[in-house]
Structure formats: C-alpha cells, structure tokens
Amino acid sequence: MDCSTSKSRQPSRPYPFRILAMVVSLAAAFVLLALPVLHALGQDNIFTGTSTGAAATIRLAVADFKPLAADPQTAALKTTFDTTLYADLASAGIFDIVSKSLMPPGTPGAPSEMQLQSYSNAPASASFVAFGSLGMVGSKLIANGFLFDAKNLQYPQVLAKQYSEDPTEDSARQIAHRFADEIILRLGGGTPGIAESKIYYVKISGGGTPNVTKEIWEMDYDGANQHAITHLGTISLSPRISPDSSRLAFSSLGRNGFQIRMYSLLLGRAVNFPEVGGTNISPAWSPDGREIAYSSSRTDTPEIWISDASGNLARRITSFRGGNVSPTYNPKTGAQIAFVSGRTSVPQIYIMNSDGSAVQQMTDGGYATSPSWSPNGQVIAFAWDRKYGPGAPGGQDIYVMEAATKKWIQLTHDGGRCDFPSWSPDGRHIVYANSADGREAHTRIWTMLADGSQRRPLTGPGADMPNWSWK
Amino acid sequence: MTQSLRLQIFRIRSVRSALCLAVGLAVFTGCHKKSAPANPASLGPMATESTPAPTANLTADPLAIDLGQSVVLNWRTTNATSVAIDGIGPVNVNGTQTVSPSNSTNFHLVAKGDGGITEASVRVTVRVPVAPTVPAEAAGAAAEMGSEEAFHQNVADIFFDYDSYTLRPEGDASASKAAAYLVAHPDIRVVIGGYCDDRGSAEYNLALGENRANAAKTALVKAGVGANRIRVVSYGKEKQFCTEETDSCWQQNRRAQFSLDR
C-alpha cells in the first residue's frame, strides 16, 4: 500500500525569460554539453536554452537502507531495493549522486539515527539525503523512506513515506520506483518521475531469416520485467500505448497486408478494430485518447488518416503522392501532427495542423524519419541520415529539433543505425533503437538523457521500435 | 420394391457326441426356411430330448431409402425364447418396427432358444445426398490459372532503383509482357507484393513498398488488366529475399513480386 499523497501534475513552470526558454527537459547542463558540439560543427543551430526551474543538478546522497531484521529474505530484497533506488535517482538526469565511496559510515534507518552534518560536510557535500529502513513485518515487506535537506538542520525532513507490499523481488523494485518518483517530484521542479513508466517495443525472433516473427513486448522503464504482450506469430510493428495506458495500438501483417490492431491491456486481449483495404501502419494516439492518426493506403497512396479510437469515422488528412507515414501528435496541444512524407522523393519530417492545414517541411535534406514529439510540445526527436544516398557514408542518428525555429542538435554519433526515438513522460529521456552493424537482428533498445548523454542499453539484441508510455 | 431375403441361418448347438457331424451337415446344407426335424430313429435316444434350434427371418421394406425416409423391419422366429435386434433392444419373437436410419445400417437379429442361438441380418441402404461436384466450367477456370512456371516465365518481378517507385525502362517492358500474358489468361488473379531493401526506416519502407506494388499494378491496369484481378500487399523491409549487405542483394530486395492469387 502506498501511503503517499496523490500526485498531481504541476502546471507548467514559469518561463520568466521566454526568449531563453527552450526545453524544459534540456536543463542547463544539457545545453552546456550541447554547445561545444554545435560550435564544433560550425552550426548556427544553437539552442539558446537555460535552466527552467529544475535548477542545476542537485547533489543527492542515497544511503543504503537499514535492514529491519537480519533474515536472508530481507537481505535479498534490500539489495534489489537499494540497487533500484540508486539507479532510478542516478538516471533521473537532475541529480549529482554522491559516490558510494564518499558516503559517511553507518546506515541510518530512522531520523533519530541521522547525523546530517556527516552528509552535508565534505567529502559527501550532499544537499539532500535519501535514507530509510526496509524489512519484514509479519508477512509484509515494509519500507520507511526519508528525504532530508542536509543544509536545514532545524527542520530537515522533506519527505517521509511508508510502503507495505508483499515480499517479492517485483514489489521491492516497485516501491523503490515509487520512492524515487516521490523524490524526483519534490526536487525535480515538480515534474513527476518516470520510474513507474513502461516501454512497449517490438521483439524480433529469427531476424534476418524468412521465418522472422515480431511480437509486441513490454518492459519497465529501466529494462527490467521484459515480457510478451502479443502472441500472433506474424509481424507486428509500431506499438503505441494510449495516454491512459489502457490500450495498445499497433500494426500487424495479415493476408491482406498490414492492418491496425488494437489490444486492451485491461482485458488482456485484442479488441475489434475494422480492417480496411491497403496498407495500414504507424498508429499514433491523440493526447486526449479519443483519436488515432495512422497511415492508410485504402485509397491508393499512403496518406495520413484520423479515426476515432475504435477505428470508425476515418477521414483523410493528407493528399500528397510519395507516401505519408509515422504521424505523431503534439502531446501538449493535440492540435498539430508531425509526420514523414516522401513527396520530395526522400522522406522528410513535416508538421501540420491536425486538420491537415498549414503543412510545413522541417528537415531540409537527407533521410529523416520516425518523429516523436516531446511532452512539452516544443521539440521533435527523429532519426536522420543527413548524408543519405547510394554509397554514402552517412549514419542514421537521433536528432532533436525545436518545432518553432527548426534549430536542431545531433544526439547520437557514430554508433551505427539509430531509429525510433520516443520521449519519456518527463521529457528528460529518450529511448531509441540502435543496431551497431545496421542488421535488424542486432537491434537493441537504448535510453539516454535528452541531451544525448548517459546512453545505455536496456535490452539485448532483437528489440526494436520502443514506445514510452505517457505516464 | 419389396424383396424377401433368404437369410442364412446358423445353428449352434452344444456338441455332446457323434451328433456333431450330423449337425455340421445340417448347417452346411441349411438355409431352410423350416429345418426339418431330424429323424428320431436315426438320431438315437439323446436327440429325441433336444429342442429344435430356433429359426429367424428378418426383412426390411424397402431395402433402400433416401435420407429421412423410414423403413419397416419385419421379423419372424420360431423356437425362440428371446429375440433382440442390435440398436433396438429386446423385441417380441415376431413383430414389425418402423425405423429411420441416418446411415446405411446392418440390422442384426439374435434369436435365442433352448435349442441354441440363431442370427439374421438385413442391410438397409440410405442414400445420403452428396456435395455438388465441381461444375465443368469452374474446373476449366482452375486450369486457366495456368502453371506456376508459365506464369513466372511471362510475369517477371519488377525491380526498382534505390528509394524509388518509378518503373525503369526494363520494368516497363516486363510489365507489358506480364500484361499481355494476363490479358490472354483472363482467369488468372494476381497478388503483387511490394518489397524494399533493409536500409531506411521500417515504417517509411512499408509506404515505399506499397508505392512500388501500386506502380506495378498501375502499369498492368493501363495495359488492360482488370484492376479487380490484382491484389496489392506491401511487405516493406519485413520480408527480406536476400540478407547480405551488398548492392546486388539490395537490388533483389527492391522489387514488386508477382504471385498467383489462388
């Protein structure tokens, strides 16, 4: 049972310097990292962003929790809990975590055992300390978590939480995720953490062979708990989770080609979605969950269509030959759609109003695909091969572009083929697919901060097309 | 049609003595409607105490019916104490019964008496309607689909340039030849698969594959092939024909592939 108070998404943060304000997720440190890259490229595509409230990184000490009892079960669960909590906070992108070797001795399990100065003084020099205790009470796993302000000796307590769950490895991970999210919510400028979010993706079996199958899988945001959702025995692509996490839209190969399919995560089964003619692929949810935009060639050429979430009342939005695919709504407003069009031969990123008006081309060349609009509506991440062509040495990398100015920065470099970026709910992270040698069977899912730092793989080979949940 | 069946009568008697030979002869020479009692003088004292074997006669009228019609079974026995028919159960020693079997059935009667057991059976044929056979013209149409070899000789895959769905000159020629064959064989239906090499992005390649297959379809339709005979499926880069990272391999993957749509 989670005793925490209800989390509410804080209203958008103030932007005192509107000209400077750029991306909530790209905190000052990110931009500092990005600038040298842009200077090195001689580009004038510079994000003139600055810190927008999340402040510079906060120095946070994460103490191992104190065991309430000495039984072996507690020890195993505590290891899982400590590891998960530390990883969640270290990967949050807003903390400077105190190295374990600099931590003061002792394991405080309760406020009375806490010697704050030992954390606030050098070498730890922590601004905040997360600590607590974990153990079995009766048949339940109980965790008491605290967050203390190390600089406020008189009233140090920022957060006190108690969690009670069944004693399983999964519970230990989940309560660590929940406690981490509470800390991130308090210290991260009011943006909820993502430790409880999920990533949906395509699992490839037999890649590179004629018998290849692709199923839709789900995992926790940190790569744990990977498991299958579909068992269709065919090729299923482009999973897109609904904003309320209740339904999963994807595209699946049947006798008449690819069709949009809908899977209810609440019912645990596929639900009806009408089959129409032609190739129907790359669904995208509107932020209110009422509509789905997707590519359909029911009237000859692949165009962007919008239907309601049940597949009814479909209407065509684009009308350009050359192929129009991969729509993604502006999640902030729902009023705009970014998509890929091959109207000028090689695919480029375009945006338009969600009624099809005001189309504008965003990329100016190369081969640009797979747009994903950031949660704050300001930035579009996409895959771009800027030197595309037969025999060209270009690599396909992940880029982000500010929608208002078309200024862009490159996030990945020389790591092989990258594709399918998808934003985390807090806009601080991007998950994407990467294949070092370009082969599908070797594709893995990676995560990184939205400035391209802290890249690390979440899966082994054979995982593609990640889609991060909305919350 | 009424037909009275002479049913073979088996007599089974307990064998006690040398009588068994005589009994055997009686069996082989049997098929009498009424087996004549053996001469008591010739059979000796033992035989005079034995009861004659039962006789049984089972007929059906009619012997052949259409499904749903009924048949009257008629049986007569003598010297029997209990009579049963399989599927009906114990019955009177003589009687009739109306039955309506759903399949051709062997009705089998067993008459038991003090003198032994006698069996009789009759077969009722039920004419079940058979599924309609393939009409002559449909069989002809299947033949008109022609052989796979002839199809692929005349309807060759069309290959495309990198990131293009425009037919090349040899693609136009290939489409013309294919269209001529398809016009000459109006019963052939075709499925065109659109394929791409494994470079580029999966979702866009599905659109590209769709455009390639549609380009091939358009060429056929312009040359007089009915659009309703052509089905288009895009596989994008999901079904690689060739998996090496070479130019020739990529070229083989960038194609519109024709198959018979059976």
Structural description of this entry:
The complex is a heterodimer of chains A (471) and B (262). With 471 residues, chain A is mainly beta. Chain A has two domains: 130 residues, Rossmann fold (3-Layer(aba) Sandwich); 271 residues, 6 Propeller (Neuraminidase), CATH 2.120.10.30. Helix content of chain A is 12%, strand content 37%. In chain A, the strands form seven sheets. In chain A, strands 1, 2, 3, 4, 5 and 6 form a six-stranded mixed sheet that branches. In chain A, strands 9-8-7-30 form a four-stranded antiparallel sheet, with no helix packed on it. Chain A has a four-stranded antiparallel sheet with strand order 10-11-12-13, with no helix packed on it. Chain A is elongated. Chain A starts with 27 loop residues before the first helix and ends with a strand. By secondary structure, chain B is an alpha+beta fold. The longest helix of chain B has 21 residues. The radius of gyration of chain B is 39 Å and the shape is rod-shaped. The N terminus of chain B is likely disordered. Chain B folds into two domains: 109 residues, Immunoglobulin-like (Sandwich); 125 residues, 2-Layer Sandwich (60s Ribosomal Protein L30, Chain: A). Chain B has seven helices and twelve strands. Classes of the chains: A mainly beta (471), B alpha+beta (262). At the A-B interface, β18 and β22 of A face α6 and β11 of B.
